[in-house]
Specification:
Length: 393
């Protein structure tokens, strides 16, 4: 009975083998692994609440293939304090004349502007969650960080929503194992926002096939549960808010501009190489190498933006001033403080917990002047998503 028909591997593995063979066959898994093995039916009415963290990439993913697949592997720190809390209430009663029936409330305010993004996500996920068109969803979501802070909320938001939907699916199919649950939640989150697949588990997550990451996959993120050096326990991330509000150029547009980018292929190869060296550095506690790679990745990300066609610039003068000040501080104090950037002007300062008091003093004395309204957010590496209400309901 045991055979490797990829089209039906989900029937053989998901319920019976996935726990013991965690990700062992990731290289063989296709999207069809996540198709449901139950007949579509209306779930019971229920409310599910999940918290999912934001994440900060150390090796960046920039450029993608259909559908939401990365052009290169990436790895990220899962954060602890910056997270999205989402409550989904499902009821069998459906609004008429709608393929998908849902309401979306952000901070208890109805947000019609969010409807197209949720509809697009449901369109992509419908094949894997057929109950999406069979009832009504009330989605309440809130962030622990300000929406205008420049921290990517799409990753934590789509991860929290995907986890809620997976809890509803598990009420239909109780045979779903914990490993399959997390893998499929990551797979679904990716359909809404690529980096969201790295916000399911913690504390260090890789996404994308890579020879240095056993069982890695382009389809979902994989937690790297190896013995990291003690330096990286509770590693700190302080986010300096240089510019609040929405970026002038969206990340989706930026990814698209990597098609036919003159330096695109070299960039993808660089990221693959950097990921291998970063894992070695984090295992051995080589902070000098860690810093070199992380800062190079941040600057290369923005170099790709500046050399796209059309070119664009998301860093601000204050961003550059902070970078220079960090370099000067590190040189004068020998404290292993480094920076990274997302696709925006804000700066993430990364450093060991043992250096927290010195770094916070440095921020207050020299860097806060570059922060809009003097704002910055203190965070640290966390452990991933958490269900906030009991299961089952």
């Amino acid at each position: 009975m045991f055979y490797f028909d990829v089209q039906r591997i989900t029937f053989l593995l998901s319920a019976h083998f996935f726990n013991g063979w965690k990700y062992y066959l990731c290289g063989m898994i296709s999207e069809q692994f996540f198709l449901p093995k139950y007949e579509p039916k209306v779930p019971q009415s229920q409310t599910v609440i999940w918290s999912a963290p934001s994440n900060i990439a150390l090796v960046k993913y920039w450029g993608k293939k259909p559908v939401q697949l990365p052009a290169n592997a990436s790895v990220s720190f899962t954060l602890s304090n910056c997270k999205t809390i989402t409550e989904v209430t499902f009821s069998a009663k459906k609004q008429k004349n709608q393929l998908y029936s849902f309401d979306i409330l952000v901070d208890e305010v109805y947000k019609e502007s969010f409807r197209p993004k949720i509809e697009s996500f449901f369109d992509k996920a419908q094949e894997y969650l057929p109950f999406l068109s069979l009832g009504h969803f009330q989605i309440r979501t809130t962030n622990t960080f300000p929406h205008s802070s420049g921290i990517a909320s799409s990753a934590s938001g789509m991860a929290a929503l995907a986890l809620c939907l997976m809890s509803i699916e598990k009420s239909i199919d109780p045979t779903i194992s914990e490993d399959f649950f997390l893998a499929k939640a990551s797979f679904l989150a990716r359909l809404g926002s690529g980096s969201a697949c790295r916000s399911i588990e913690g504390s260090i997550v890789a996404w994308g096939s890579h020879p240095a990451v056993p069982n890695s996959s382009d389809l979902f993120g994989v937690a790297l549960n190896r013995p990291w050096h003690v330096f990286f326990e509770k590693y700190q991330d302080t986010i300096l808010i240089v510019e609040e509000g929405q970026k002038q150029v969206s990340s989706s547009t930026g990814h698209e501009l990597m098609h036919n980018h003159p330096f695109g292929q070299q960039r993808f190869e660089q990221a693959q190489s950097n990921l291998s060296h970063l894992i070695t550095a984090m295992t051995q506690g080589d902070l000098d190498e860690f810093i070199t790679i992380v800062e190079s990745e941040a600057l290369t990300l923005h170099a790709m933006m500046m050399t796209s066609n059309p070119a664009y610039l998301l860093m601000q003068p204050a961003t550059l001033s902070i970078i220079k000040a960090v370099w000067d501080f590190r040189k004068s104090t020998q404290i292993p403080l480094c920076f990274t950037l997302d696709a925006g002007a804000n700066v993430h300062l990364l450093y060991p917990k043992s250096a927290k008091s010195e770094v916070l003093a440095f921020i207050e004395e020299e860097l806060v002047v570059y922060c809009e309204n003097g704002r910055y957010i203190c965070d640290e590496v966390g452990e991933g998503s958490i269900r906030l209400n009991d299961y089952p309901n």
